[in-house]
Amino acid sequence: MVLTPDPKAEDEPVLVGRELELALIREHLHGSGDGRAVLLRGAAGIGKTRLLSAALAELDADSRVLTVKCQESGGAAYEAVRALFAPLGLTEGDPAHHPLLAGGTPLAGSAALALPALTTDGTPDGVAADMYGVMHGLYWLTASLAAERPLILAVDDLQWCDEASLRWLGFLLRRAEGLPVSLLLTLRTEVEPARPDVLDEMADTASCLTVDVEPLTDDAVRAMLAAALAVTPDASVVGRCMELTGGTPFLVQLVVRELREHAPAGGLDADALRDGLGQGAVARFHLDRLGPDRLAVAKALAILESDAIEPVAALAGTTPGPAAGAVDALRAAGLLRPDSLAYRHDLMRQAVLDATPPEERLALRERAARLLNDSGRPSDQVAAQLMHLPEVPEAWMVTVLRSAALGAEQRGAPATAGQYLSRALRHDLDDIELLTASARVLAHSDHPTALSRLEHALSLATDPRLRCRLVLQYVITSLGAQNSLRAFELVGETLPMVEAELGDSAEEQALRTLVEAMALVSGLDEKSTVRRVSERFRHRAAPLGETAEDRLLLGMLCALGTLEGRPAAELIPMAERVLRVGDVSLGGWGALGASLTLYLADEVKPVEAVLTALLEHAQRRGQAWNSALASTTRAQVHMWTGNIAQALADAQLAFDLVHRDLHVKSAVGPHCTLADVLVLRGDARRAEEVLDLIRRPRLDQFALESHTYMMSRARTRAALGDLEGALGHLVRCGDSLAEAGIGNPVLAPWWYDAAQLLAELGRHGEGRDVVDRVTPAVRRWGTSRARGMLALARGVLTPGDSGIDELTEAARLLDDSPGRLEHARAEYLLGLRLLERGDAESARERLRRSIDIAVLCGDRLLLDQAVPALGAAGGRLRRGTESPTDALSGSERQVAERAVAGATNREIAEALFLTQRTVEFHLTSVYRKLGIRGRGELAAVLAAERRPVG
Length: 950
Hints:
The protein is mainly alpha-helical. The protein is built from 46 helices and five strands. It has a five-stranded parallel β-sheet, with helices on both faces. α6 links the parallel β3 (151-156) and β4 (181-188). It is elongated.
């Protein structure tokens, strides 16, 4: 599969008429230091490969050139990638002792995540690799190689590149800015590629120059004929040649052979050119002159595209000796390259296939697959032949396709695995194992098909244990497809069977526990099923949490109790049992459920620890989606404790991952969390822009996301001065929570914000009705923060000294909680009321306290209100309220904090899924904004950024 820029063959024409194309390539890739690409597009035979070779010959001799030519027969997942890196010795040997796993080498770190793509054995532990993680690792492998010397990747016939490699090339191109990496690509325009969307995205990248390679002009054809024939052709010969070839260089080369064979001695005659000369004509002419044995070898070569003579001979029905003789004859006829078993041009190979009747071609494909399988060739090579068959008639073929699919899955290429398994299903559409395996891999890219296959498998399954496992898989797949209602129905149908038919063995008890946990996971996803979940588990005793399955169920029971608004003091010990072990097994659902309970109950430290562990685990494995999920949740926790700077850093990372890297348009949490932080930082306009990017169908039906979204919209509108609009969002949020049966008062504290808005609008009676509506829920939840928020809401709605007493109590309660943002607001509102009463001295004390807390938190929204209020009370600030670090963006803060912790630029980039150049850019910006010269001063500035100022 390797394409090498070897010297031209004896009869390969000189390159003429391509001065403009070469100049464009030369200019675009000048210096090869800024992640550029050139895509050469054109029809077959137009000279793309020849132009590619000429361009490579002109590039810097110090560059490392890695090349690959893709084949029409397709390839295994990451086959093109392995062909590119094979010359470096990175695709052979024992995966467990691979150079990428050797610590301290230039290729260590995140580059080790590329290992599944580089070896045919997949991951050393046999576990399916994360698709994004593998591409992330390949990027860092490329960056490491480019750091040693400029790197050029040349890919010929990109339209036949395997999907996994193609996606990675696009991934690399989007991140190659600043790397001394160049991509030279060729693409046939008349062939429909497997993934046109990926190719279009690559071509649309600003750093990619697309060059449409056009037919040669008359002058170029004349020059090409003259150089090949040592005679200057007259206009009639050139004209006839243009009629026959259309200026296609490959066909002009065939004309040269025609003229050499038929032109009269001593001159060129247009009449010597036969009609019908065109793509494949010469190949068909020579094929017609071949005997049956040699023709069989020609067909075998076209089918196998192999450089090994043994399988070619076997497929042709002969032995290697006679097959080698046939190869020599084919070379003499000009059909094969002189240095390999490959055809001189794919058009010649295609002519051989076209001359073979369709039934015979399919028979050859099937026979080739059988021969390759019997000789012990890798399953993906056998599968490449089987994928051409319309049916899969024999059981051994299914085994091969399943093995190839497993290899693709382990290499982090679920789409390729899905293609293999979908073809295997043609053997038996009712094969439950194939249905479930294909559903598992398709869950990454095609949720509807995955769910449909699971539904079909469930209709066939009778064994209760198998049905349980299928339902569990259905629930997990449904979460990504926003299809939890159907999943909850299936779990509901399964639970009675579980209780009636599963025994008391440890394995069956674990299975029963998992089904119960999935009932909670699916039932708590949408509003319409929350009440049904509450009823179903009302009397369920909490498990001890001794097994992973028990902890998953216990964590989800904590989440249910939290949504219901059961007393926090009852839930805290349960949630602590979930997190005490410190594992993140079974998808982390139990840990996230327990974390929700603990952080809303103001037990924050264990939550921060588990979220940090989840995030670090995801970052080490290159798992962008899990990193985004953990970062979003940790940002919410930081905001809950008033750490706005840290919340911004985590929220920006999560948003960038889902929006910039993963392109998940249906994500809600990262957008809302970032918007909330931006509002507190005084940038409500950008917060609204972030919220406008959300594209979640049926958003109003989801239990958590819908209320998170309504709260974010309300706070954004309020910050923009639209109090009535904000109030509308808040009231709808409260009504929606009540309708769903969600009674936790601090999960989405609409009433807290609504009370303050109603007080500002002078609608105190409505505000008191709102407060009375939630008072029982607040008392039941029972935390100091919740009671302090309730006292604040009562205080702003109550006139006179009674209101001041309520606000004083609110400040006391909130001072005894992690709710620093609420505490700062209570002190501010109390200061305003004291000032209204005429107690300016007490007002100044409260306002200064509010300002101190707001500065520590980074609450710019409150500072913009409290500082003028302090001036009105006759007070002055002892120093400014702004810190130089306020100017840092979320991404800059992430980079700065990791730099302070001692991470190198590369380590920072690997952890944050950035390029090294982006990290350098951020650090330069940080130094400029903070007025410092480098890392040595950074730690002191960050450590001193928040001090009381009042």
